[in-house]
Amino acid sequence: MKDLTTAQWELYRFLKTNYSDNKYISKQEICQALPQYYEMKANETRTCRDIEFDVRIINANPTIQKIIVSNAKGYKLGTQEQVTMYLQSRLREAKRSLAHTYKLIHKAELNNQFKITFSKNERNVIETYVKQEEEENNEDYESRSN
């Protein structure tokens, strides 16, 4: 496990010193308190990713024993109940993502298998992947249309 960066330690200290049982700290507040590490930009996505990345690293680090929870309101050190709810939410997300991945795996495994068809418009062989020559034809078409 890599050591935490100065920015990650400062973020953890800031969340720890500004802890309140029912108050989340927004990314704007974090940027205002730690301008040397986080800059609020017109496009907040980059700032969010930086803070989210650092929170993920802090939570994964065995040196830090507390768990930082997050939601749309912001970030905070979690109580037992808040951490439980946060982890349940993360678990639901992971299950949905895993279910989607398994559907894609199943779909990929069906490639070149025969199936029963009920109309003339259906193919009797499943083609999961685009063939190399079809890709080249599509590229030729796209280059001509531009």
In short:
The chain has 146 residues and is mainly alpha-helical.
Could you explain the architecture of this structure?
The chain is mainly alpha-helical and 146 residues long. It is 55% helix and 5% strand. The protein has 5 helices and 2 strands; from the N terminus they run αααββαα. Strands 1-2 form a two-stranded antiparallel sheet.
Features:
mainly alpha, two-stranded antiparallel sheet, 2 strands
Rg computed from alpha carbons, rounded to a whole number of angstroms? 24 Å
User: Would you tell me the structural class of the helices and strands?
Assistant: mainly alpha
Residue share in helix: 40-55%
Major β-sheet annotation: 2 strands, antiparallel
Overall, the morphology is elongated
Ends distance: 49 Å
What fraction strand? Answer: 5-15%
The strand order across the widest sheet is 1-2
What is the tally of beta strands? Answer: 2
SSE topology string: HHHEEHH
Low-confidence stretches: none
